[in-house]
Records
---
Amino acid sequence: MTTVNMTVNGKAVSGNIPDNTLLSEFLRENLRLTGTHIGCDTSQCGACVVHINGMPVKSCSTLAVSLDGAEVLTIEGLTKGGKDAELHPMQVAFNDNHGLQCGFCTPGMIMTGIDMVKRYKAEGKDLTSDAIRAELEGNICRCTGYHNIVKSIEDAATKM
Amino acid sequence: MSTGIGARVKRKEDKRFTTGKGKYTDDIRNDNQAYAAFVRSTHAHANIKGIDASAALAMDGVIEVLDGHQLTGDGIGNIICGWAVTSKDGSPMNMGAWSALATSKARYVGDAIAVVIAETQAQARIAAEAVVVDYEELPAIAHVMKAMAEDAPNIHENAPGNLIYDWELGDEALADAGLASATHITTLDLTNNRLSPNPMEPRVAIATYDDAEEHYTLHTTSQNPHVARLLLSAFYQVAPENKLRVIAPDVGGGFGAKIYVYPEEITCLWASMRTNRSIKWTSDRSEAFLTDAHGRDHVTTAKMGFDDNHKIVGFKVDTVANLGAYMSLFSSSVPTYLYATLLSGQYNIQNLHCNVRTYYTNTVPVDAYRGAGRPEATYVMERMMETAARELDMDPAELRRINFIQTFPHQTPMLMAYDAGDFPKILEMAQDAADIAGFAARKTEAAGRGKLRGIGYSTFIEACGLAPSQAAGSLGAGVGLWESAEVRVNPVGSIEILTGSHSHGQGHETTFAQIVADRFDIPIESVSIVHGDTDKVQFGMGTYGSRSAPVGMSAVVKAMDKVEAKVKKIAAHTLEAAEEDIVIEGGQVKVAGTDKAMGWHEVGLAAYIAHNLPEGMEPGLKETAFFDPVNFSFPSGAFICEVEVDPDTGVTEIIKFTAADDFGTIINPMIVEGQVHGGVTQGIGQALLEQVVYDDDGQLLTGSYMDYTMPRAADIPFFDVSHHETPSPNNPLGVKGCGEAGAIGSPPAVINAITDAIGNNNLAMPATPQAVWRAIQATKSVAAE
């Protein structure tokens, strides 16, 4: 057991957890932040993507105890919550463009999408639909055929 | 902005999913929670000589280890197949016994043998590894064509030769005579590859026994919680229905795999009672590959005869289907009544016969996966048509057009009475959208770059809106396939719709609300949809077979008819007018042509306050209806796929995919298009990427996303989707259902396009780069000879 301290969605959190606890388990079971989903056991599906110190990471392949002092952002941290809280432009775009059906892959898609838009903007590169498709290599969706996910990210890129 | 029928209303349910607040089964944690892990057979076929759980029981956190002898000893019943198919010699199908925990014999890798209950999931999983099963290995059958061999091992005692049934539909003598009269015969051997449905949310069950009430609650990832409760109660003897609540909260996709009650739910419920704990089981993806029902897996030989006018004069199909180690719930119906019945396609064929033999193998059970039988029928039909056109040196669209059914209703020789459609029209729409006229130039341009361009068609029909109960019953179904709805108008005029349909991605919270907002002309925000909980919703049949719109919504309409009648009576009484003069519009209930009106909410209030109701009228404003369709619905479509193949690598790129569909009336085009995108993508996955592989010993080789190729964003193009609406005459909204069309129609379009590009018709699914490259080499070597 190891004690780990990190900042999750702007709040200081702490846990005394087994060393083999994955970040995805720590978020879901210890913090009860269940928006981060587990869709596979081989780090392929991307439903568990969160941001660690600003970088997108599959939380199912990261040990929580390795993140002492880290800043973690999950899907729940994109909006401050409450009745009239403003949603992140990526969240709005997924609704506007029907970018989700069952919703299970959606948190990972949104976290991946935000990162890709920010990264391309920072590098001054054009985020084309082909680039979005290539960037989504690590995120699987079984419902949408990706058509509207790509449209959602394209749309959000114009608003972020 | 309109929120009624036909409007592109954004989904009401999205906010909780985009903010991480969706409530899926695995997100639930009960007090008193313990965890289950299953001990699964590592052999495809083995006698179980003994189980030693002593080491596991001594491990940290382990509460109990339970096996199949205890389960059957407590009277838990075997898992059943709910559709009785009769062999052509009149004998019943050979259903082998399937206990939730195998007792004497394991029949596939992953077959559940025992369950470990522990304080944590990790403890349960580690202890499950420590349960020692003494196996006596038996020879296994992994492939269906080996199941019928004379020396094949026997999987179920009551199924000699592993045969489940030998069934036929149509008139063999007529088909033979038709073929004998033909001037051209096309013959094809086809394999429909085995698939794993793979909803992104793995299955989960949380069973909670309340000893004070002797009551069970099951939270589970189900497409049809009421059907689950019925099965668990009436057949598996877990608890009487009034002592069992089944809740399917947010469900992360289904595609058929979540229709069935699996061994895990049964075992968790029973173990919950045995341990007096709430028991949670969460499948990981490996377990999903091992245990979720697979789809397809047909081997078919087909013969189609044409006369001098290129009309089809005879069609004969012989299919062998793999049903796996046990008969899953609807497994028997998929290669029969959901398959052979659609072998007339969009064509006028009078002489038709299909024979289907199904066999046991030592693989996971095979059942309905998106499309269920209809993709297999469409693959046979549309590969035949394209192949025949090539052999006859005809335009494949023209050959189809010559044979299209032109008038409706149309009775096929395969039981189905098509209700409505316009096949030439949707083909023309697809051809225009795909710019067929410009294809030759594009092919030449691609050739200049060293690429092979090809184009392929698929014009298909499906039977949806499952199903007229009496007809289904006469064909062997163990249940009725109606749907229920309750329309509950609250005293303030807001409305709750309780539906037996279940949304697991389809957007019912939006589309069902649209039909209510449209009917009563009230804001869509004041309509809520309640589903997925047997304690809240009256009995219903759930969602599969593209039935939620044609059957589920029709029940809502029927209940709304009753509400409207009562509203008009109340308004007529209050406003002192004749009932037939009352109209509902603009949030008001009015006397037509006058300024006399009540607010919609005032009628609701009047019904509940009941101070001044018509003589003899019951208070309240809540109506229930059950809708039983008089016929299936028949969505049809024309798909065109254009591909470019790299002859050096065999890599196929889909340049354009065009889908023109006739779904009848469309409630929300945005959602319908999303269904087509997803369905076509699953079909492209089948055609290019996906294949469940067992080795000869029955070991699953495609047990993770490292091995089973799911379509990724870069594999898939943008889609060109359009619609033509010929309303179904068989339900009040004229809807036909749209959930499965994409998966049904697309695989042959893709394979027809690739085989056109490479000039070799001998190509099986999935058309991986290696398979395509080999087919190209085969063509080259033939050319060289």
Note: Chain B has three domains: 14-138+201-252+258-291, 298-466+631-784, 482-627.
---
Amino acid sequence: MKKAITVALAGNPNVGKTTLFNTLTGSRQHVGNWPGVTVEKKEGIREYSGRTIEVTDLPGTYSLTAYSADEVVARNFIIEDRPDVVVQVVDASNLERNLYLTMQLAELGRPVIIALNMVDVAEGRGDTIDEKRLAELLAMPVIRTVGTSGEGLLDLLDAVVAIAAKGEKHTHTIGYGDDAEALISDLVGILDDDPDLAPRYPLRWLAVRLIEGDADIRRVVSGSSVGDAVSARLADIDFDEYEATLADKRYEAIGAILPQACTICVRKMTGSDMIDRVVTNKYLGIPIFLALMWGAFQLTFAVAEPFMAGIEYIFGWLGEGVAASVGPEWLASLLGDGVIGGVGGVLVFVPNIFILFLILSILEGSGYLARGAFIMDRLMYAIGLPGKSFIPMLMGFGCNVPAIMSTRTIEDERDRLITILVNPFISCGARLPVYILFAGVFFGRDAGNVIFGMYILGILVAILSAKLFRSTVLPGESSPFIMEMPPYRIPTLKNALLNMWEKGSTYLKKAGGIILIGSLIVWFLASYPAGVGYGSEESFAGMIGKFVEPLVAPLGLDWKIAVALIFGFVAKEIVVSSLGVLYGAEEGSAALSDALLADPALSAAGALAVMVFVLLYMPCVATLAVIKKETGSWRWAGFSVLYGLVVAWSLAFVTFHVAGFFLGGA
Amino acid sequence: MSPPDPLPIPLDTVITGEKARVVSVRAKGQLRKRLLEMGIIPGAIIESIRVAPLGDPVEFRVKGYNLSIRKGDASCIEVVMEVE
Amino acid sequence: MSEYQKRIFAALLGVLYLLAGAATIIAVAIPEIGIFEVLGISGDPAGGFILIVIGGTLFYGYLELSKGIHEGVAFLHVGIALALVFGMIQLLSTGAEFATMALFEDEAITLGMLREEIVPVLYLALIALAGFIAWGKEFSAGLLRG
């Protein structure tokens, strides 16, 4: 058996790379993260003419200047993993900008093949492309492909196998003009003196990156034996100037090639422009966006309902079965309250997550998501976030878990982190039962206004926190908003479903374990030491409740509420059922309301403080798991818990005393 | 040589529907890199095609595709009006 | 000729949606208007907003076409698309609700309950569907041209 051929799939965002990857590898793919970063890594395998071809889907990038995690990943993969072939998927209807990446890929020294995608779109609007001539001019194979139908796929595979068999390097690069070229050859000469560099990097590429002021590469070279010599040569160089010159030369080279190989039809008004006139219309743009977001929200949560009910039904049935048939009481409780309750808590969100990702991938695939960001950017910029943060914020009102997962569409890592960290303050659906209980009991006719106030408070805290994070822990301007507005396309169901399955199942795998462990810890605290009633005063949870009572006393709360809040960590709606247990009342019955009203420790001001605390105090375990997964570290998850607790305590304290002043009872 | 260029103006002042030619990109760092690689290089023809409903950002057409840029960022790009 | 038909269609359907939307919002304040029940209108601010957005888009198309702006036809197409999308969302939500009731809550679905689900966003979408059948091809062809 011959060695497998490794292929890296590169390309700009929105060129149909994912579609091509899916048709290329079928179902034989798996998703992981690149080591150390949260960028997704997709790999798939294809058997072709007796060879195994391993395809790695690189993140979509416009260039390889490596200022975002995506670009660093793409560049490092090509340089360090040395794939046998790099296939660049190119959008034929947007050749000029797409070929910029080609110019950079060519410098990396690996053989490059162009998969010319969307030729149907380009030719449909009157462009003509002579791919043979293009291949000659670029000195690399150019294969026509149609990702959706699989056309050209076999030609592409033939080209991959052929080029891998030859095993040549790609040596054809463009010239950057006399001045830059003199500098480049000087640098190559210096770099060549270090025997370690040449085997690891194409030297010409290193030199080019150095004069473009690439900080990463500068660090690599500074650490080598020729670091000082390089620094000396680069001492009085205007990097900005060279950067512009090199970019200019690349586009110049493209400009010289294109007219020889294709004619581009100049368009006045395209179909996309027609749609954009409507959806970004001065008066209708925002209402249409809000309407569509409401629709997405409605679909996510309404359509998931029967599936969620089904999952709850199955787990309820399992729980009863365990309670009835498992011998030792502690084991029945462990399985029933701990494992089944915990796993059920994860799975119940799964329909939401799957449907949300289906909708998001349809919105993104159609090109509308970019318009949404365009429309909302001004508003979000005011609170220091990019336009794309709007969707996660909105989704947060349903459930923070899919909301945080939807931040994947935000390119800038810091913007994304801030959006993730403030999301738990958006009041999710699970908190509503708590408000309904307390507001209903203590505020009667004003309950609706009080609940509405909670939602507003959540939004305010999210906005202020975003501003705070922007100016302290994650400083810097919100990233420049330079976004391609892709033409509209009709998304394919197959891709949307694949995308949904991929993201949904990753959530299950990654978050499931954490949630299970969290649930088990809470179960343990509520059940031990041996022989105590579940969640009673004598249990560890009760002891913790008693222990922290002095902490919540300034908020007008006693140990019972403290215990309920601890349970609420598993899922916030559990606060209500826990109170039922603690007050010895059936959930949902009038008895709990009466018991709360009769409790001398609780006042109307205290009830407000509870609601504020539940709104803000910390993400539930499922949200925490997803924060950990999406930020790639426990640090941010821990930060989110601490920050939440501090904010919740402070605001609950203020609420209790201010409300106490007006309502009495403080 | 062509006659001397008129005085350059910042890109964000170009009216919707008008075309201009990029003279210089005065941005620094990340913004500069991003603009250059997206094809906003001296000499490029850029057309303002649409303003977002809230007045910012602005959508431009450059190198045959559409790109949206915030006015604040666009003000770093100096252009001269292109007469058709 | 065809553009004249489109103009009339946009105006009529736009006005119907706008009226239905206004009624849905009015019904929040004054629920006991007799004709509302017949038309399946009940107070719902968000639902009313959706209807008004669809109606507004269609009517805007009518205004542009009347001014002789040919591109106004895009408002008609997007309006029809929105009408269909929200009709579909309504259908799916209702289906999900009934499925939950029938499968897990042991509630029988009565004819009266079905009757209650015949709401403007659903039956007006049928008219939009007629428009889509008439002009949909031209719309998606325009889309694919880029």
Note: The helical segments of chain B are 29-37, 71-74.
